[in-house]
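In this section we walk through a basic example: taking a raw amino acid sequence and producing a predicted 3D structure, encoded as discrete structure tokens. The instruction is simple. Fold the sequence below.
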Amino acid sequence: MSESKNSEKLSTAVVHSGSDSDQKELPTSNVDSHETPEGGEPTIEELKSLRHISGNIPIRCWLVAIVELAERFSYYGLSAPFQNYMQNTPEDSPKGILGLNQNGATALSYFFQFWCYVTPIFGGWLSDTYWGKYKTITFFCCTYIIGIFILFITSLPAITSRNTALGGFIAAIIIIGLSTGAVKSNVSPLIADQIPKTKPAIKILKSGERVVVDPNITIQNVFMFFYLMINIGSLSVIATTQLEAHVGFWAAYLLPFCFFFIALTALIIGRNQYVKVPVNEKVVSKTFRVVIIGCKSGFNLDAAKPSLNPEKGYPWNDKFVEEVRRAFYACKVFVFYPIYWLCYGQMVNNFISQAGQMELHGLPNDILQAINSLSIIIFIPICERFVYPFIRKFTPFKAITKIFWGFMFASVAMVYAAVTQHFIYQAGPCYDHPKACAPEFKTVPNHIHVAIQVPAYFLIAMSEIFASITGLEYAYTKAPVTMKAFITSLFLVTNAFGSALGIALSSVSTDPKMVWTYTGIAVACFIAGILFWIIYRGFNEKEEELNRLEYASDDEYEASTGLKPIASLTRSIISLA
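The resulting token sequence is shown next.
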């Protein structure tokens, strides 16, 4: 994406306002009607009439993506066997170790998810306040390896017992959860940091078509391909579930341990290539001070603006207050996400238990998680190349709309799971108490094929493309420049609240109540989606205005944060790439 070097720069109309309206900066047309030359900033008419395309994605973005691929390979690979490992005993089919039964295993599974998604708060704060994203990711990748090693060692049949395995498992998930939280809160902002913060620009294609290179679409594509790499990594469940079934849990945990070293290799190779946003030790505390001042003034953030309150001597400028206001828009949007994550969480616990009640025909009961990843891998490029451009021809397909449809897909997935569970309960030999109606049927599933589960995993995948990817994108684009990791962590922590809801519902995650469990979750997600749309649909109209804060000049950046700007450095590295 090129910077505008056009000498005929567009004039801007800047509308200053107080508390009654937002501050807007809008490009205006040149006096004459000539088209903006290539590289110039488009006029309002051109923004509306020309096709918007993505800019180029630098190679160093892919190095960051490899780190995420390796981390997600290890995370999903080792967690895929968790439900069997926790729920069953060595005498059960499928085999396990800890023997906690379905509700106990589901509760512990949700605790692990809760821990993994509450720790990003710590990782985001540490990164934005002291270490920076790169150092934080590197350190916690090393502790991640230690956690996986503990899990591997305590699952070895030669040295383990139930108590040893339980102690090792708890220690491992605490270390792994802390590490994955710190990595997740920083790796997605780090990959987006590699994209230069430029304004929309005119480009003339080889065909002669004049288009707008839109940085918002570039960021959208970065997060879509980032999520694609996540799901390529998550295909590790195919290997680890097969190793679990045919070799043992120790082998299923050894593979992620070995593969994780790829992440460290990518970090070392790219250490001198990554764009690293400088750390401001006071940015988080400044943000909280702005928030507190706004709350004391009747939730009016204008009370924290130095231009309106010069006697206060605030150590920030008006733009920083507007950035905090923009971040609040993102945080408000996240309020309904815990319900969504409650639906998503079913895939890694109750769906696995449900599969164990059906005829597997030689497949591990936890391998169908791969359907979710494969669906995402197939449909992300389809959405990026065909679906989204097609929809944009007729109407803007903005973040709030995408998230709403993500909720709807998740709700339908839960409806399908409830119907599937009904059919399981209708099949013999044990009907609504699968494998539990008599001792002789302990290893005999109900007579229904496990393939009936496939659409549920597909529907969850489609919901992720619309809700999860867009949520990450929204968190990044609406966060202040020096608080990307922290605001991203606030989005991730909604998953922790979803897991807390799952823990509360774990007592009803047992037969013969599962039909009503899935139905209740489906209804909750549908209502949450409708309320989300009613409350936040107006945010679509404000999105462009909010995003303009992201593309500040170097002088504005330094005045806002007290830091030296990185825009010039970024442009230099882009030109070399």
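Looking at the output, two observations stand out. The beta strands are 12-15, 24-27, 51-53, 201-204, 210-213. The first strand starts at residue 12 and ends at 15. In the next section we compare this with other chains.
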